[in-house]
Amino acid sequence: MKPNHTQDFPDFIYDLTPGFTPVIGGDYLKEDYVFIDLSANNRDLLRLEVASSEAFSMFIDEFLKNRNAKAAYGGYNELRTLYNRSELFNNNKEANRNIHIGLDIWVPAYTDILSPLDGSIHSFRDNDNFGDYGPTIILEHSQNDRTFYTLYGHLSRASLETLAVGDRVRAGDKIAELGDFHENGDYAPHLHFQIMESMQGNIGDYPGVIKKEDQDNYLQNCPDPNLLLKI
User: Fold this and answer.
1) What is the residue-averaged pLDDT of the chain?
2) M23ase beta-sheet core domain: which residues (predicted)?
3) CB under 8 Å to 39, separation ≥6 — which residues?
4) Closest of 196, 186, 200, 202 to residue 219, by C-alpha
5) Which of 2, 75, 173, 182 is the most buried (most CB within 10 A)?
6) CA-to-CA distance for 69 and 45, rounded, in angstroms?
């Protein structure tokens, strides 16, 4: 894969917003968020039955309660063992696909999802494999004569019902709602948010979990989403 990227892309993303930029609707403030480590280094996960979306939801709820927080976030460039349960990431062809390159935000199902910037609907799809994104929306943005894309995964199926490619959205518009485990790829409710400089031919989908040997190429095309959101 030959990425279409430039070295200043991360700085460009950082400069688009002056401060905390909501992608979660409701009354969430910056101070309501807390960082969560879901990497292979988190020993608390060893006690968790990660194959169970219900058990993982309870784990997230307890984590937030213990920290008096409303939302958890994290996961960019994070090596995770959570994907071992899914043949999508754990098969002969895709073995060792376990590095997460989006930002996850853990909030309740059916929470509103907002566009952080002006844009339009590039594509959408229900990626309905076990462990996949489930319903997914990709927005196209043109800012300062530059085009790039943002991805929103683990949505509700109802979020896709009235969409059309090319529909315009404004910064702060509601574009979707989170799905529950029945429709979001069988995960505890959360948003997978990712930035791509180039879609590289993908429609309604873009890899959010990659192999170590592909890491450098993908990270050059997909900068840390928190450069934009500034949580």
Assistant:
1) 91
2) 99-197
3) 78, 79, 80
4) 196
5) 75
6) 19
